[in-house]
Description:
The protein is α/β, with parallel strands linked by helices.
Amino acid sequence: MSSTHRNVLILAHRTAAAPALLEAVRRRAQEGPCRFTLLVPSTAHGLHRVVDPQDHGREEAEAVLELALPHLEEAAGGPVEGVIGDPEPLAAVEDALNRERFDEVMISTLPTRVSRWLHLDLPRKVAGLGLPVTTVRAHGRGEGAPDAMR
């Protein structure tokens, strides 16, 4: 791969196919050659957190990848790799950065008022790892994941 390509890590879960993220990926791809990787933490939601968080978290992350990757590939104009990471998003990013070289990180979150990642100041913590970070916020209630991913 040419050194002119930028490796972009996308951290997303419930907003992995949100219109705001797809538009951000489309814009980034238009700026120059990129290779995108979607990282989905294996975090369980709802009752699954109590029942069997590890198992259900992985299943949920696999479903997110299956549904989001085609949309992201269309926005990127090419293949997007999908990986499942640690349930804790910061640890998932650290693991990804240890496995592969990335030039920047996009973090896709729910709207500010409901985003756990923003309340935990995740973008600042990821930026502390030494890479530029772009935070993409979903705009409203209907803009998270497609219905099959909720």
